[in-house]
Amino acid sequence: MNIAVDTRVLMNPTRTGVGEYTYELLNALFKIDKQNQYYLFYNSSKDVSKNVQLWDQENVHYVSTRWPNKIFNLFQKFFKYPKLDSLVKQDLDAWFSPNLNFTVISKKTKYILTIHDLSFEILPECFSLKRRMWHKIINPKKQCERADLILTPSENTKRDVVELYDVEESKVSVVRPGLCSNFGKLETLQFGGQAGNWKRQVKQKYNLPDKFILFLGTIEPRKNIEGIIEAFEKANSINNHYSLIIAGAKGWKYDIIMDKIEKTPGVRYLGFLDESEKQALYELASLFVYPSLYEGFGFPVLEAMACGTPVLTSNRTSLPEVAGNKAFLVNPHNTSEIASGMEMLLNGDSIYNKITEEAKKHAERFSWDETAREFLNLI
Q: Residue 216 CB: number of other CB atoms within 10 A?
């Protein structure tokens, strides 16, 4: 088969969650599939080849155009030109988009689309006007109608797609992502010039306390960080013994959240962390909290579990699927329940140890190799 893949999401040097999904899936796919021909498409007026051209094997080819992205997207939207599959100059069997984007392809080419979540439909108040307009212009519902196969990372996102967009259930398949391929290996790498001391160095770099609760994710309203801080303030039996550490890139409306962080004793913000620092922080934390209001999957929950760190997360959307019964689930809208969960986990040795032991084994079940094989079976 000839399969084109939209890799525009890989153009940025810093990968988002969707960029990580695309990279990991393709990386696993190319390890096991040496027969199908893959044409990786990207567009940029700048030279971004080093960010996209990551694989060197005979059945992987690169197709690029040099339009300014804004003009390219305008032409896609209003003139339905160019047809992306025509740029490949091959008879394609399928076009795979690992995320929503401006996508115009010929009717003759099968269209495979990944929908990660529909949070922009369900919680529009958690998105900026610019992002809401972008989703309206890109018209996800119409793209789902055009798609021959829709992939989702969870049953929850599948239900949302079927119900909100009136899509036939048989057209939507759940393909679970895997755990980042670096996880579990970073402790063997050189960090700061010395092997084996990376956790100690991260702790010293950020002056971390011996006992702390961790949140790691984008600083934005959907992540419910204000709810975490309020719950921490209510958890009287632990807030004198533990700090609350918050880390991640600043997103939309971060200033309101940052103001609350600065005004709350025992709460600190570390900023954006690289991958090795993230894993060190997970392993150093006494508890990971992630009571998000909506997630299509929830990679941070899986990453914390892979590090053997007890997790408290939301009982909504896809998070119970990711965590299974190996985490403490709470109502994200109830700060008293979040506070009680923190106290129960940190004050109760038996439940803490049970979750700690089982979390790592559970996370190991999420494999990108398995994801890639399922993807191949579907196409």
A: 22
Amino acid identity of residue 277, one-letter, is E
CA distances from 184 to 37, 251, 323, 372 (A): 32, 28, 18, 20
Residue 184's Cα: distance from chain center in Å? 18
Angle between the N-to-C axes of helices 335-347 and 225-234, in degrees from 0 to 180, rounded to the nearest 10 = 60
Report the share of the chain in percent with pLDDT over 90: 81
pTM for this predicted structure: 0.92
Residue type, 16: T
CA–CA distance, 122 with 129 (Å, rounded to integer): 15
What 3-state DSSP class applies to 322? Answer: helix
Residue 331, pLDDT > 60, answer yes
CATH topology assigned to domain 2-179+367-378: Rossmann fold (3.40.50)
Which sign does the torsion angle of CA 314, 316, 322, 327 carry?
positive
CB 148 within 8 A of CB 110: yes
Lowest mean pLDDT among 287-291, 311-315, 318-322, 355-359: 355-359
For residue 328 the two structure tokens come to 């403490």
Compute φ and ψ for 40, nearest 5 degrees.
-95, 115
Sheet holding 212-216, edge to edge: 267-271, 243-247, 212-216, 287-290, 311-314, 328-330
In percent, the amount of the chain with pLDDT more than 70 equals: 96
> What local confidence, expressed as pLDDT, does residue 190 receive?
43
Whether the per-residue pLDDT at 188 is higher than 70: the answer is no
Which pLDDT score, from 0 to 100, does residue 186 have? 55
Tell me which CATH homologous superfamily contains domain 186-363.
Glycogen Phosphorylase B; (3.40.50.2000)
Taking the C-alpha atoms of residue 45 and residue 86, their distance in angstroms, rounded to an integer, is 19
